[in-house]
Amino acid sequence: MKILITGSDGMLGHDLIEVLKDNHELILTNSKSLDITDRNHVMDFIFENKPDIVINSAAYTNVDGCEENQETAFNVNGEGVRNLALGCRNIDCPLVHISTDYVFNGESTVPWVEDDEVGPISVYGKSKLKGEEAILEILDEFFIIRTAWLYGINGGNFPKTMLELAENHSEITVVYDEVGSPTYTLDLAKAISQLIETDYYGIYHITNSGSCSWCEFARYIFETAQKDVKVIPVTASEFARPAPRPHYSVLANKRWMDKGFKPLRNYKYAVKEYIELIK
Ligand SMILES: NC(=O)c1ccc[n+]([C@@H]2O[C@H](COP(=O)([O-])OP(=O)(O)OC[C@H]3O[C@@H](n4cnc5c(N)ncnc54)[C@H](OP(=O)(O)O)[C@@H]3O)[C@@H](O)[C@H]2O)c1
Questions:
Q1: How many CA atoms lie within 13 A of 250 on its CB side?
Q2: Tens place of pLDDT for every residue, the chain, 279 residues?
Q3: Which of 7, 116, 119, 180 is the most exposed place for a label (fewest CB within 10 A)?
Q4: What are the chain's domains?
């Protein structure tokens, strides 16, 4: 297939390239070569290149930054996605779009399924929801993939931060009242590569299996990397950040499994492999 990837310099973009490059023709774009907020350029670019499918891994992902830069957040995560959807409709090609657990309010105690009511509590979540809504309004053939707590080779992320802190801290405080599913971008990219071979369009939750709090995640990272760091649990309210985060954002990968795909491996196996790779 001829696949157009936006935001290909990002963390997920990097692993999408790794996974797709051998079997597909890739058209790689980044924020300079294809700014998704530039509607005319997006429309022209898609029309001229005529991809078989577009994968949007571009986003404004700075969750706290979104609170301050609301306009940018809605422009990139909302209007940018609308532009891609319009471009895809123009040439009748499907769009794969990556969304987030932050479209939910976090007030559940059981894993969220795809049809659960959304209710984002941060600007980032609201802007990502706008992107989803634009796709639902414009396209019939799409994959909206909500994922969570990403980490990968090519970007800043929680495991990397923890390992950096371990270099000069013997104890650190980490939030314990936010629970989610850490997800390796390589595993997510592999799942996306399977999904795009099908016409099972719709909204999906795709994460590694299992769940933990940030605190448990940190402890597992230190244990795996054999770092002697004491993790002190704190509440999210004690650890003040500009954007509120959902307390419980575990995503049930229901539709993924209903379609016959295997659950992604437990996050612990993925984290172990990742730490081996970066240490
Ligand atoms: N990271 C997470 O924990 C997480 C969790 C759930 C869902 N997601 C979603 O997963 C997707 C991939 O996330 P990621 O962590 O791989 O993100 P990332 O590393 O921040 O990559 C996003 C890429 O988008 C590019 N970009 C920003 N504005 C753009 C624009 N106007 N036009 C074109 N490209 C633009 C960025 O380029 P510049 O650096 O040049 O701006 C960057 O290379 C995103 O949709 C994100 O919302 C992420």
A1: 15
A2: 999 999 999 999 999 999 999 999 999 999 999 999 999 999 999 999 999 999 999 999 999 999 999 999 999 999 999 999 999 999 999 999 999 999 999 999 999 999 999 999 999 999 999 999 999 999 999 999 999 999 999 999 999 999 999 999 999 999 999 999 999 999 999 999 999 999 999 999 999 999 999 999 999 999 999 999 999 999 999 988 999 999 999 999 999 999 999 999 999 999 999 999 998
A3: 119
A4: 2-156+182-209+249-265 (3.40.50.720)
Question: Tokens 């700075």 label which residue?
Answer: 62
Which among 63, 83, 150 is the best mutation to test ligand 1's pocket, defined by most ligand atoms within 8 Å of the CB?
Answer: 150
Q: What is the 3-state secondary structure (H, E, C) of 70-93?
A: HHHHHHHHHHHHHHHHHHHHHHCC
Q: Compute the distance between CA of residue 63 and CA of residue 67 in angstroms, rounded to an integer.
A: 7
- The span from the CA of 58 to the CA of 55, in Å, is 9
Find the residues whose C-beta lies inside 6 A of ligand 1. Answer: 6-7, 9-12, 30-31, 35-37, 57-61, 76, 80, 98, 100, 128, 147-150, 155
pTM of the model: 0.98
Compute the residue count for the chain.
Answer: 279
